[in-house]
Design goal:
Elements: E1 10-20, E2 23-32, E3 36-41, E4 57-62, E5 68-76, E6 79-84, H1 88-103
Antiparallel strand pairs: 1-2, 1-4, 2-3, 3-6, 4-5, 5-6
């Protein structure tokens, strides 16, 4: 099967929150690239429910990253896949953040 993504996603597990208006759900970032990401929602009580639908505009808050805006491109029972609409500078900044997170580097000093 041919890979259809333009950018290679990196496996990266981080706490994340997805917001649509006043509604937010916590979950886990599963993988990310400068073009998009996959999130899995968790519910310790069992059934996972989320209000997100394909084409929803959302705000994405990932631990260690600046907030991102995106759009839901696919939903599954336990999660969503999103695309980012970033300009060249935003994409470079996100790539840098991904590299730092993958290498567990702290450059804030």
């Amino acid at each position: 099967m041919k890979e259809q993504r333009e950018r290679l996603r990196q496996a990266l597990k981080k706490l994340a929150f997805i917001k649509k208006g006043e509604v937010a759900r916590g979950g886990l970032l599963k993988d990310i690239s400068s073009g998009g990401a996959a999130f899995e929602f968790v519910n310790p009580m069992g059934t996972v429910e989320h209000p997100f639908l394909k084409s929803d505009d959302i705000e994405i808050i990932i631990d260690g990253f600046e907030p991102l805006n995106g759009q839901v491109v696919r939903t599954i029972e336990k999660g969503i896949f999103v695309s980012f609409n970033l300009d060249a500078d935003g994409e470079d900044e996100l790539i840098s953040g991904i590299m730092i997170a993958l290498n567990d580097m702290d450059i804030s000093n």
